[in-house]
Amino acid sequence: xxxxxxxxTYYADVESCVENILSKxxxxxxxxxxxGLGKPNQLVNxxxxxxxKDPTLRLKIFTAxxxxxxxxxxGLERRLVEPLSARIFGNYPExxxxxxxxxxxxxxxxxxxxxxxxxxxxxxxxxxxxxxxSSNYTHVVRDSLDSDMNVFAQLISSAKQxxxxxxxxxxxxxxxxxxxxPKMRGLEKSGKKIAILGQINxxxxxxxxxxxxxxxxxxxxxxxxxxxxxxxxxxxxxxxxSDYMIGLHASAxxxxxxxxxxxxxxxxxxxxxxxxxxxxxxxxxxxLLSEANVLGKFEKMIHNVGGNEPFKxxxxxxxxxxxxxxxxxxxxxxxxxxxxxxxxxxxxxNENKLSHQISPAALTRLIEEKIIHPQLSEKEVTLLQQxxxxxxxLKYQNGFIYPPNEIPxxxxxxxxxxAEKIYRHCLEPHIKxxxxxxxxxxxxxxxxxxxxxxxxxEEREQFCMKRVAYVNQLYGSEELKRLQRKDARFLNSxxxxxxNGAIISDKLEDGRTVSGVGGQYxxxxxxxxxxxxxxxxxxxxxxxxxxxxxxxxxxxYGHTTIPCHLRDMVVTEYGIANLRGKNDREIIIALLNIxxxxxxxxxxxxxxxxxxxxxxxxxxxDFKDNYPARLKKHLRPYxxxxxxxxxxxxxxxxxxxxxxxxxxxAIQTMIAKKRFPxxxxxxLRAILSAPEIAxxxxxxxxxxxxxxxxxxxxxxxxxYGLSQTGAM
Length: 728
Description:
Elements: E1 9-11, H1 14-25, E2 28-32, H2 41-53, E3 58-63, H3 75-89, H4 96-102, E4 110-114, H5 126-130, H6 140-146, E5 151-156, E6 160-162, E7 165-169, H7 177-189, E8 195-200, E9 212-214, E10 220-222, H8 241-251, E11 259-261, H9 266-280, H10 282-291, H11 294-305, E12 316-322, H12 324-331, H13 343-350, H14 360-368, H15 378-386, E13 395-397, E14 400-402, E15 409-410, H16 416-425, E16 437-442, H17 446-454, H18 457-460, E17 463-465, H19 468-471, H20 478-484, E18 488-493, E19 496-498, E20 503-504, H21 520-529, E21 534-538, E22 542-545, E23 548-551, E24 553-554, E25 569-572, E26 575-578, H22 584-592, H23 597-609, H24 628-640, H25 655-673, H26 681-688, H27 695-700, H28 709-724
Parallel strand pairs: 1-10, 2-3, 2-5, 3-4, 5-8, 8-10, 11-12, 11-18, 12-16, 16-17, 18-21, 19-24, 21-25
Antiparallel strand pairs: 6-7, 7-9, 13-14, 14-15, 19-20, 22-23, 25-26
C-alpha cells in the first residue's frame, strides 16, 4: 500500500469527526463496524444520532454480534439485574441503534444488517430477521464490500512507536480489517469516496501479528480520554452436570501434541476444566472416566482419536475466537506447543529432528538435512536468524560472522575452533518467533482482559492475532498450516442434530435466524481437509421450552447448517457418536446411543418407519439408561470432593445473586408449566415470616423491609422461589 503522510487526521470529539466524514463521503453512508468487542460505540452513536435528526441522511450499519447489557422484563427482575449490570459493565456505553432496533423504533432511513446475532436475542425482531446476512466468516469481507460499504470504523488501542513510526493495534478484532483496508483503498483509487476511522480506547491491550497496523491506515482517529470505557466483559455462566459430562467426553478426544479450537460459553468452559483435570489431576480424571462408564463404552474411540494421559507435548490453538479458556490452558502448562512461520522449520520440529531448545546438535542436524552447509553463506546465516536460531544482531561479511563487540568468526562449522565460537557467541537458547495461538478476535470476562494487558511484549506476542482468512481456512500458506495444525480437534456447538448426521446451528426451520453460521462451516470443512483432524460438535441432548422437554436429536428438520455429508463426531452428555465414513444405519445407531432415553424409542420408530433400520433392532442395554439422574449420580462424589464446581474459573456474581438467579429461573419454569408445588410446613413458615437466613437475599433486592403491597407480594414470591430451590 502506498503510504500517505497526510493520514490520519486526529479529532478530540466524535462530532467533528463525523461532520467531516459526512462532508467527504456524502449522505449515503454504509457503515461497517467489527463483530463483538471492537465497535467504536461513541462514533457509531454519533452517526446514528445524525441520521435520526436528518431524514435525508441514509445510514446502513453492517456488523455482527452487537453486545448489549442484560435487560429485565419486570420490576422484580430489575432489582436483581440493574445493580449487577452496573457493577459488571461499568461505564460501557450502549449502542443506540440496537436499543432502537429492539424497540422496533428504527427510523425509515436507518437499516441494520448483521451476519451474526447474539444467540436468540433477535429471534422475534422482524427488522433484524429481514436484514440478516447469511455468510461464512471468510466471505464477510466480500459481502460487506458488495453492500457498498464506504465507511469503516473500529475501536483501536493506544499507539506505540517503533523506528520513528506510529503503530496502532486492532487488538480484539484482527479478523476482517486487515483485508478490508487494502480493498477499500483500491476502491478509493478508482474514484469511490471512502473513510476508515479509528477510535482509541486505552483499555484495549496492544496485540501483535495482523493486529499491528501503521497509523496511516486510518483517515481519521478520535483520541480523547472522555471516550475511554470499560470493555464489555460477559461473565462466565454456571456449568451444570450435563455440560460437565459433555466436557468429559470431549476432553478425552483431544490428542496430546495436537491442535485445539474452542468457542465461548459454559460448554467450552466445561471442556477447558476437564482438560485441566486430565493434566493436573490425572488419577481423578481417569477415575471419573471409569466411574461414568465413558471408558467402558468408548475406550477404543478415545484411544484412536484422543487420550486420557496428561499433556506432555501440549497443545497449540487455532481458533477464530480467543477466549478465556485458552488463558486457563496456558496458565496450566497445557497450551505450550509453539508453531513457527517457516515451513521447513515446522516440518523438522514435527518430525522431532529439531528441538525448541537450541544446541550445537541443531546445526549438525540442519547440515544432515541439507538445510545449511558447513561453510555458512550469507543467505544461510540470514535463514538461521529468521528461524530464531542465530541472534538477530549478528552481521555477515566475506565469509565471517560479526557478533557485536566480538572478534569476527569464520563462518565454518567444519572447523572445530570456529564452530566452538559460533556455538558460544551466535546461538540463541531457544528458537524464537513461535506462537501458541492464532486467533482473529477475542471476547471474555474482565480477568481475561487483565491477563492480556498484564503480559510483557515477548509473552503477548505468543498469542498472535491473525485475519480470519488465515485462521479459518487452509487457503494461502496451505502446507505450513497443515504442518502447524496437526491432530486438530475443532470443537463447536449446535442446536440440534438429525439422525442422518446433519447439524442445525444457526436457524429454525421456519426461516428465523437464532445466531448465524459464523465460522462453523469453515472449521468443519477444514477438519475434513486435514488428514488427522476431527470436527467435534457438542450438543445438549435435550432442551426445555415452555416447561416441556424436547430432544435435540431429531429425526429430520427443515433447515441444515452443516450437511450430513460433512458429518464427523457428535458429543452429548451421554456419549460420543463417531459418524465419519459410516452408513446411514450405523449413524442412526450411534446417535440413538447418545440420545436421552426418554426419546430413544420414538426416534427408533421413526427410523424404522422410513426403512433406515431393521424392524427388530433394539437399543443395547448399556445405552438405555441415558437419564439426567444417572449423570448426577456419577458426578456427585467428585463434586463433594471439591471438583466440578459451578464456576470453576471464578465468577463476578455474589453468592446471593447466584441463589436468586436460580430462584427466579425456578419461578419462570413453574409459570411456563403452570404447575406450582405446594410448600411444606417448613417452607410455608419461611414464606409467611421471612427467616434470618433469607435476609441477605432480600437485602440484595431491597425487599427486606417492604412497605407497599406490591413490594410485600414480590417478597413472598422471592421467598417461595428460594424455598423451592433449597436456598433456605
